[in-house]
Amino acid sequence: MFRFTAVFLLPTGVHAAKRPRHRRGGGRITKKCKSSTSGNNAEIAGGDAPDLGSPAPSTSLRAFERHEFLGDRVIGYLVAHHVFDEHPTLQPLLALNVDNEKLARAAVAHGLHRFLRHDLPLPCLPAQVREFTADIASYPVHSNGLVKTPKILAGIIESIMGAVDVDSGHDQERLWKVFRRLADPLIAPRMVGKHQMCEFRSMYRAGLFPKVKITGHWKRSKTIKVVDVHGETLGSATYAKSRIVARNRAVKSALAGHAQVQESVARRRRCRRK
């Protein structure tokens, strides 16, 4: 059974180093829950970190943020070593495996958002989880910047990893086992395509894409357009939750349209040769 000082349920079967327990505030409070990943009982223990029964929400929030800060660094370190060892020439895999969307997917997949304290200022969290789950349904592995991710979901995994780092005595082997179980499967080569903005910039520098301007009054219309020098729209997207995501979707639309045009031109040339 995994026992650690955090608000969340961790899958059983991975054990942290035992630490002395001290009574604080209203005392130590534990709650048995059903694991969403293994079906076995796991225990959530109160302590220095946010817990399900802490009498001081402000203290819990500060502890959550402190563990989130630590966990962010821990995850980056662990995945950096994994990419370095397994995929030495594919550094973009690091960003894909530690960004907000990847971590938020892990939190939702394990149902960890259900164990956040209800008295934290998160009244819209259930709706955000539903929207995020619906958005990523079209992208089984990663959207590459095409959906808006609630940061609090990624913060759950970061806070868990920060708490496990403290409770395990900074044991890297145990940390890696826990993270692999939470984040499985890690993104590998060929699982996702190239980010649309990277593809757009590389094509533009190589002269394979016309000169364009990314424009639009997003605050008013929630729409971003990619237009050429003649004012013709090559791609557009409407996305109310994020201007950056709207831009990424517009660029992806422009790339898709450009690819179709190039394929059409190539077909006409082949027909003429015949």
TrEMBL record:
Keywords: Hydrolase, Signal
Signal sequence annotation: 1-16
GO molecular function terms noted in the UniProt entry: ribonuclease III activity; RNA binding
Biased composition (Basic residues): 18-34
Chain intervals for the UniProt region annotation (Disordered): 18-57
Record InterPro entries: RNase_III_dom, RNase_III_sf
Keyword Transport assigned: no
Any single biological process term in GO: siRNA processing
The organism's place on the tree of life at top rank: Eukaryota
A GO CC term assigned to this protein in UniProt: nucleus
PROSITE patterns, sorted: RNASE_3_2 (PS50142)
All copies of domain RNase III, residue ranges: 64-169
CDD domains, alphabetized: RIBOc (cd00593)
Protein name from the UniProt record: RNase III domain-containing protein
